[in-house]
What we know:
- The protein folds into two domains: 5-38 and 122-411, Metal-dependent hydrolases (TIM Barrel, Alpha-Beta Barrel); 40-120, uronate isomerase, domain 2, chain A (Orthogonal Bundle), CATH 1.10.2020.10.
- The strands form three sheets. The protein has a five-stranded parallel sheet with strand order 4-5-6-9-10, sandwiched between helices. A three-stranded parallel sheet has the order 1-2-3. A two-stranded antiparallel ribbon has the order 7-8.
- By secondary structure, it is of the alpha/beta class.
- The chain has 18 helices and ten strands.
Amino acid sequence: MSMDTSALRAMVEDVVDRARVTDMHTHLFAPEFGSLLLCGADELLTFHYLISESFRVHRMPYSDFWRLSKAEQSAQIWRSLFVENSPLSEAASGVISVARRLGCDPAALSLQSLREALPSRPTPEYVQRVLDAAGVDEIVMTNDPFDPAERACWTDTFRYDPRFYAALRLDAMMNRLEQVCPLLRADGYEVDPQLGGKSVPELKRFLEAWIERTQPVYVAFSVADDFVYPDGGIRGRILDEVVLPVCREHKLALALMVGARRQVNPQLQLAGDSVANASVRPLEALCVNHPDNRFLVTMLSRENQHEIVVAARKFHNLMVFGCWWFVNTDSLVEEITRMRLELLGPTFIAQHSDARVLEQLIYKWDRVRSVLKRVLADKYERLAQDGWCVTRADVERDVDRLVRTNFWDFVRW
Ligand code: RAT
Ligand code: ZN
């Protein structure tokens, strides 16, 4: 490796290390949401990714596990994944990275020392420390207007930390309307599961009230592989008659998270969801039929990644984002990021963390940065070899696009 090449790679690495990030999809809440903001060792260890991995080791009857207290669950997971096995998986090794970055000695790590190092209630200083360690400046939450714990927080005078932004998540309304009709009616909206009578204008009124209340940066919902569009069914009608027009009127992008097959194993509760290869055609149809709507899209299956990138080349109202959940692993993020750069240049959103526990921001963004360093250094190195002048300012601009401004430009377009 020539000096020039190694200096170039070192420069790219330094830029990626220093980049400040907007985390555009998480399950974290601002501190003012109280106990909804999870942190500490027991929350970290009972992350649902680790719960499902632990069952492969302890093989407890599901109901026995759920009867345990949180502290007992985390002790069981610690034993299964960190004592009886090496923590090699993405989620398990992430706990070790967090411990190291928060000052524990990984060589002498115990459940006790992890519990002592990570507070279970976040002070403002601790939140700042974690955000600084992760290099994250802004966090987008996932806000479910049908969740009772969250609804209790959204009073008219509710104000929260300006580093946090809302995203209105409509899974319940889009996928299980019949289940939320009683709640809608209790709130004073005349909606019935068949969308009869005043249901459509009433759903619009509901959505507008929640947009007014939460001021979201986008509206979102997830679907499995049964998503079709155009669709004369209930979901298609809600999309056409409620969600798309309201998004247009309020200049809001719609995020579609495609390929999550829910509750494949209901006994695993939140950990029981799986993946499905889905069709990209409904997404193309949405983009072509609704040029005035903007769509943020992520797909869960590895097999869908190539098609969705090609679709993004065809539609500038489609923004590909993140490597979601089961494709958020070191090797797949690298593969997907290389492919996206090769087909789209730096015009996508490289990653979101999906963090559910505050400290996860640290390892999740550390991993993104290490992949971005490898991939970008290779790409700039080739440009430099071909004689292109790669400046630090250009690299800073491109990295900033990938982890921050592509998101903001798209949602504010
Ligand atoms: O990754 C996760 O934590 C999943 O449980 C899901 O919440 C997923 O990210 C989603 O947003 O539906
Ligand atoms: Zn998520």
